[in-house]
Design goal:
Leucine Aminopeptidase, subunit E, domain 1; six-stranded mixed beta sheet; binds adenosine-5-diphosphoribose
Length: 177
């Protein structure tokens, strides 16, 4: 799987699926969650409400992932994942790895060939960007080993600032990607 690390706005990425750093309610919020809902249009919130009324009555657990259509976004799907919130004691980095790995697995099961990630957990939920980059790296390399025949051929990490982009590049370069 090809990996691209870039600075940009994830809502503009023309990939098959973009990943949303959501919260357990799935009913929107600030940060990248707010940006994705604004760009996707009100149909996205309606689809998330539908999930809460059916499959996810208690919301989405940290580290889990669920897909909806992308509606007005260039991306066909939005994969919503919930980062562990350090401010409420969710400090297990394995949950952060799970956000990335469950999103990759879901993208694969949807038949996506390309997926874009923001720095899940790296904003409101309080994770240091290096920890996010390390979790992302572990998930991508683990996915490649577990799903060698996947049709998923591109993973983008779309970061909102030069500092975060550089942190990701440093971690991935140091680990040999
Ligand atoms: N494109 C790419 N990255 C973005 C964008 C965007 N349009 N907007 C923000 N970001 C970046 C932030 O700068 C940060 O580096 O996404 C990263 C994740 O930050 P948050 O969006 O705060 O996500 P998170 O830390 O996982 O917290 C999730 O915040 O917005 C609420 O509803 C959300 O409650 C949830 C919590």
């Amino acid at each position: 799987m090809r990996i691209i690390i870039l600075q940009g706005d994830i809502t503009t990425r023309t990939v098959d699926a973009i990943v949303n750093a959501a919260n357990s309610s799935l009913l929107g919020g600030g940060g990248v969650d707010g940006a994705i809902h604004r760009a996707a249009g009100p149909e996205l919130l309606a689809a998330c409400r539908g999930l809460r009324e059916t499959d996810l009555p208690h919301g989405l657990a940290p580290g889990a992932a669920v897909a909806t259509p992308g509606f007005r976004l260039p991306a066909r799907w939005v994969i919503h994942t919930v980062g562990p919130n350090r401010h409420v004691g969710q400090t297990n980095p394995a949950l952060l790895v799970s956000c990335f790995s469950e999103s990759l697995r879901l993208a694969d099961s949807l038949g996506a060939a390309s997926v874009a990630f923001p720095a899940v957990g790296g904003g409101v939920y309080g994770w240091h960007v290096r920890q996010v980059a390390e979790a992302a790296y572990d998930a991508v390399t683990g996915f490649g080993a577990s799903y060698p025949a996947s049709a998923l051929e591109l993973a983008e990490f779309v970061l909102f600032s030069p500092e975060v982009e550089q942190a990701f590049k440093t971690v991935f370069d140091q680990r040999g990607v």
